[in-house]
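Lecture notes, structural biology module. Today: joint structure prediction for complexes of two components.
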Amino acid sequence: MKNFAARELAMIASIDGALAKESNPELVVLLRALKEGHQEAHGQVAALARLEHRPPAKPWPLASMVMQLEGLLARSYSAKASLDALRSLEHSFEVAYTEARDDSEGKRRDVFDHLAKRSSQRVYVLTHRGTHTCMRCLLDRPGPDERLVRERPHIYICAACHTEVRASFPPDIKAQLEAWPARVRESRIIERALGRPSKQKAKDEIHTVLAGQDRIVGPKPAGNAPRVEQRVSGPVERPESNLVITATDAEHESTYTEQLFDYQSMRARW
Amino acid sequence: VKPRTMARVGELAGAKWTKSTCGLCSIGCGVEVASIDGELRGIRGRSDHPVNLGRLGPKGLGQWQANAHPSRGTTPRLRGPEGGWSECSWDAAMTRVAREIDDAISMHGPGAVAFYNSGQLLLEEYYTLSKIARAGLGTPNIDSNTRLCTATVAESLVASFGADGPPGSFADFEAADCIVLFGHNAAEQSTVLWMRIMAAKSGPRPPKIIAIDPRRTATAAAADLHLAVRPGTNIALINGILRQLIHKRWFDRAFIQANTVGFEELARTVEPYSPAKVEELTGVPASKLETAAEWIGTSPAVVSTCLQGVYQSHQATATACAVNTMHLLMGKIGKPGCAPFQFAGQPSSMNTRETGADGAYPGYRNWANPTHMKDLAKRWNVPVELLGKKPVTAPEIFEQCFEGQIRVLVVLGTNPAASFPDRDRTLAALRNVFLVVMDPFMDTETAALADVYLPTAMWGEKTGCMTNAERRCNLVEKVIEPPGEAKSDLEILVDLSRRLNLVDKSGAPLIQYSSPAEAFEDWKACSAGTIPDYSGMSYKMLAERGGVQWPCNKEHPDGTERLYVDPTFPTAPELVEGALKDFQTGHAHTPHEYKAIAPDGGRARLLTVAFEEPLDTVDASFPFVAISGRQVYHWHTRTKTAKVPELAEAAPRGFVAIFARDATKLGIEDGDMVRIVARRGQVIAPAKVGENVPEGVVFIPFHYGDLALDASADAIAPDLADPVSKQPVQKYSAVRIERVDGRDRWWREP
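The predicted structure, tokenised, for the full assembly:
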């Protein structure tokens, strides 16, 4: 097996190199998403190694240096060149994981298949970037609603994500959205769009389809869960215990303490 | 102050007394615990402990009685295919847990695993969990139930001062001339602190006390001034106070110029909040607002606290920041009697934030700062590339469970089935994952849903640290053995790490320790040089001194009573714990964006925002506002306190407090059963009719999670959170009131 864990670390290092220089907030979000994708991939191959009782991967300093160098050189020219370099590297992961999948069976094959597909999705994202990068879906898709743009800090949500996220609130909140002032409503849509569940949904349901794959749908609860008849239990018979309180000459404290241990006094305040 | 002793004891012949720390709330009182032949027999306050001088509250006095309850778990349990539980060996349970975790991660990535922990564990346990999750498994999905109580503390301190860390000390309450309690029902939440305040009230320099709370609570009744603010309007009130301070020139111009940024914008933002306007928005009479501002502005020393009335409300982080701003405006910070006290609620919620077991990184390191991450990676000897993931919050974790994105959820020492908002959705989320529950009790609402239940040791049965709300790290001692095969959370986590074969960069075990003392040493090394620096502490020192306040290091070998004595704030890009977030969307500035707006010279920010209407809309169908809160006799979802005879007797069941005139209009009498209906759920409980709640508002205690009885206040709380802290808005739900059959007036019973 190729040293995928070490290669993933090297890729992350190269993305870090780009991140350190990037000042465009939309591209910072894109680079962070790429980085997290590779961190997830590293976790997957490490877990597979554990399941197969293989030793953890050793670092791969040469690859790291090469990748960082590529990334940094690209950065010295432009963001576009840097992202092109990352796309090229990403493609090499797609190829490597696909080969590994084809050489594997069973669970191992499933894991590499998943990793190859995620790489393929990232290649798609890096290939189909628009002028703007939506901070949710990392693309810039049209849609029936307006794009949401804010400054200080800069925020960009594409029109399609605006529509999708607006429709994704729990029913009781969705029913109230129209009643809220536009700025408040849009702020809540942005907040939701930038949350991890919504971004993950964009990967699972948008990137997959655009990359020609089946959407990833996790297990879904069947409506509201049935009630569980469970309550914490009350006290059981125990030997009696005694409360002992020494006096204080602080009048206010004394009054309060008496209230505290006289249930009716406190109940009167509820 | 003359020490007094409070104790609750059973038969004591031959008892051994062990010094320890109370495990109930964030005050961190010193205690002595009595035991005979492996059973707890009583407790008393430590009269030599600087926090409580012998005092204890009702919960602290009763806690030892829960340890021996028959609902304690003694063996691990696995859920079988038929849905029933069966007892199993630790090996079988842990093998299953490790297998599920590795399966989920290998197929879906580390993000498929999540940890939801507590504010009741020990520092060493949080730290180990944080290290396993962040450096071992690589999941960003780790948060604590402190998200429901003090997440806003951290965010407000970061926004105002650059980093988490409450600046003051409890001693400041005794040195203050004015104490302002924003949404902090201290008489029911912080009983020993309230005793100290009441003692000060009887002393030679009694402070003026201002209570800000919609209800006339025990705290409000004892205060010199009660501002009964309308729910959801906190920020309007504090903006009104800030405006008065500016208009009356009750601010410290030299301090502002030298140590803060944002005065002009602040003045512009608060200008519309005249006393008359504030009265219109909040219901607080203009004259009372003027009096409050005068007391605050003219008192030489002012302490403010915020608690859930702020943190679980609309515009939470902004309001907490505005309270920080009030102190900065007057230069009343870093001096005796002067502190904005953003209050922790749970006994070790501070530790979750310090060690990175919530949405922070250990040592208040900034996840987006490569230098901070390199430093952490070096201390942990792991590749830096695996760190620096954006932290994930509890509402996001439960949403991911609901969406099927998380496959394995490990819950440690907390009860989200009863405490998390929008309960039906939460229950559905919990059922949608492989659920591992680590808890001392088998009878919690969450344990009932578990696929694997792991019995844990509780307070009194394990050793470690808890840091209180004034940054004082206290030692909690093991007094007796846990029942049956129950293990400490630390033992379980160390075992899990070894079964998962988590290693560092050298291939050595990631967790190389097994005892609490060794874990503490590891944490000390990790925290050295950071803001919450524990490097100068030792267990011996903590036990002897009754705790030590961080930072404690070579520079401050005896700890630190107050932060910002030299008012230099860690707001510079290289120091800041987190870049400033937008109050409306919660989105943070990128590092480059932050560099452009970072205050220079270690200055703090004067922050507030304009008032916005609360989001859960009050209309003809839902004409009332429901708020929730605590009762002094219970803790959270009563998993411990329901088992203590005196506490269960004092508050056996829930209720709905309704304003008398509202009740009359609806034909409801005291004790009538009512149904409180919100857009997402309902609560059924007896009506407690009176005048402690204002008109148009109902109050429901949040302790009663009983899943069979529709008693949970969280069933009606909306799935909305503060955009910055992601702390759920549990104190504002639009509801209607319906009378149903039945009567119960338990509060009239003796």
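Point to remember: Chain B has a mean pLDDT of 96.
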